[in-house]
Design a protein that fits this description.
This protein is of the alpha+beta class. The chain contains one helix and nine strands. The protein is 30% helix and 34% strand. A hairpin with a 7-residue loop joins strand 3 and strand 4. The radius of gyration is 28 Å and the shape is rod-shaped.
Length: 182
């Protein structure tokens, strides 16, 4: 007979295999959850960075301007002279800001295929310089009741989206070079 038993029984092997599978699945779940959380935080940080960069660039150009020369969405141009109520919000694919007396003295911002682009020239040019990505839409909101051509203070609102993360950024702006009376 065998007096020295140095092996494992079938039951001991099954228990060890079950415990190993449990520990492995817990470790994998931990890593998958951490990777998913990292991706979400990274996407959120990217959206915040993009929004801040875009709004900072826009605000520099807007403060150099004297007024708005064009607000357009995909369907139509907005009337520049109609009086609108404070708090009115207008979705805009393209906004132009005049900075001089000439017809080609405009800073133009346009949302095209989730990118916001910038250009300088005529008020309805197609801008070519890419400012940022992930931009779903851009809106302009009036602070005071007035027409678009006469406003001095307004709000720009950007909606950005990456993956299943979305972010809304807004900034109140005014024209420093607007010399008209309030």
């Amino acid at each position: 007979m065998l007096k020295n038993k140095n092996g494992f029984t079938l039951i001991e092997l099954l228990v060890a295999l079950g415990l190993s599978a449990l520990v492995t699945s817990l470790v994998i779940t931990f890593f998958v959850t951490n990777i998913k959380t990292y991706k979400e935080l990274n996407d959120e940080a990217e959206l915040q960075f993009q929004a801040q960069y875009i709004l900072n660039f826009m605000s520099d150009k807007i403060m150099e301007s004297d007024g708005i020369s064009l607000v357009k969405n995909s369907l139509n141009y907005y009337s520049m002279t109609s009086i609108r109520a404070a708090g009115s919000i207008f979705p805009a694919d393209k906004i132009s800001f005049r900075f001089g007396e000439g017809a080609s003295d405009n800073y133009v911002f346009q949302v095209i295929n989730k990118n916001i682009r910038y250009g300088s020239g005529g008020k309805d040019i197609s801008p070519t310089v890419e400012l940022g990505t992930y931009v779903e839409s851009m809106h302009i909101s009036l602070i005071n009741s007035d027409s678009l051509i006469n406003i001095k203070v307004f709000k720009i609102i950007l909606f950005l989206e990456k993956g299943n993360q979305s972010f809304e950024a807004e900034q109140v702006l005014c024209f420093r070079n607007n010399n008209s009376e309030q």
